[in-house]
Amino acid sequence: MNSVLKLLMGMLVFAAWPSIVKAQTSSCAVSYNIPYCQYIGKLKHVYINEGRVMLFYLEQPMDIALPASVGYTGVSNGSAVTYNANVDPVFAEYFYSTALTALAGDKTISIQMRQTVGGYMKVDRIWLHK
What we know:
Layout: H1 2-21, E1 25-31, E2 34-41, E3 43-48, E4 53-58, H2 65-69, E5 80-84, H3 89-104, E6 109-117, E7 120-128
Parallel strand pairs: 5-7
Antiparallel strand pairs: 1-2, 2-6, 3-4, 4-5, 6-7
């Protein structure tokens, strides 16, 4: 009976594993005395305007108290993160194309932010997951 219960529990954990792996999370921490915030999940949509301001809307918004916990003040919007393509057009092109690939393929991404701009966290790196 004990081994049957263990088998059933194992099957339950295995069945739940895909949803655990695909869970969307936001966190902030300090590494080597540098604060950063991270989002792992999917994008809801992406946006760019004539002023070359890009917004990347998160499928699961970030709690705006998280950035403040590591010293980033002024974050008033946790639904999106931003980048101004005028800062580094080459990086912006790479970042935007990676974000579009993730959005089109319904892929999970990891992004990190290390500054704030206009009430949003500013992105500075992205990973695209299989």
